[in-house]
Amino acid sequence: MPHSRTSRVPSPARTTSWLCAVLTVLAACAASAEAVYTPVPWTFTDPKDDPFNPLRYISNNTLSAIAISLVLATALTQTVLLWRYGGRCMLSMLIGEFTWAVGFGVRFGLHVDPDSEGKYIAYYLFIVLSPCAFIASEYMLMGRLARYIKSNKHLLIRPQRITVVFVISDVTTFLVQAAGALLSISHNQKLSKTGEHIFLAGLALQLASFAFFVLVALRFLYRVKTMEPHTWAMDREKPWHRDWRALSYVLLISSVGILIRCVYRVIELSQGYRGHLATTEGYFYGLDSLPLFIAVVVYTPFWPGRMIPFIDKLANVDHIDTPPVAEERPSSGSEEVKT
């Protein structure tokens, strides 16, 4: 009896568990890294010249409150969508949203205690590393889309491998960034500088990897549209929330948001922790938080589990033979005529 070929792909739950475990360890290290310092009189009046304030400004709690409210609302809504419609490939992104919200929560503490080294490190790690979980979901979703429309041949990397290759890349760059972050919190100037360079290398590798993924996705969609017009339009008679093309556009929009953030972070860190980008709050929200929020919230109305009801079955197989829709099934009357 024939059997379908399967391939082992990274489990969303396993990938997320690794990311969360590393984040937890790093946060614990941050909590123990609190330095002893003598408060200076200009802590709140002139934060730009405060040598103990890593941000070099006092974070705006109104903006922090808006950010954490929007992120938590999105995460909770998508939790309901995951429970109702499925879509386990988005689990990594979903949990990443909660850890991202933790980062904004720690930012509240920096408003009243801007010179706290431990709070700053915990905040920075959750804010900078959580998007790695978003990226992992993008990779897994791309492979499932290719299997759904049965156009595997148009992917530069086979669907059985695309998730494996890019998720391994994502985890690797995450670990490089985490290693750099651990070294950068050292009070040894030379070791801290080395950690900063390693962190920058991890961000640059992440940018290169994700940019390549976006090119793979664009090439795939272009080839399907131009070489398989029937496949491209296969869902045109369905409602918008069942059209695979809408989900592919959402994937691209989300990817653009992540790319903007990646470019910003690479440039920011290349200037150093005291550079203009790193010490200006407006850039943080405009080029990091906003693009990332768009990247995750755009999936709320276009939830993959709703648009492709059997998407969870596409994890380890080349494709699934979908049953014909009602209007395509022959009626009993037509069968009698043929006989």
From TrEMBL:
Q: What is its main location?
A: membrane
Q: Name one GO cellular component term.
A: membrane
- Locate the transmembrane regions by residue number: 63-83, 90-109, 121-141, 162-186, 198-222, 246-267, 282-303
Does the record's keyword annotation contain Signal? Answer: yes
The record, for InterPro entries, names: RTA1
Q: Which residues form the signal peptide?
A: 1-35
Q: Which keywords does the record carry?
A: Membrane, Signal, Transmembrane, Transmembrane helix
State the compartments where it is located: Membrane
- What does the record say about its membrane topology? Multi-pass membrane protein
User: Per its record, how is this protein called by name?
Assistant: RTA1-domain-containing protein
Taxonomic source organism: Lentinus tigrinus ALCF2SS1-6
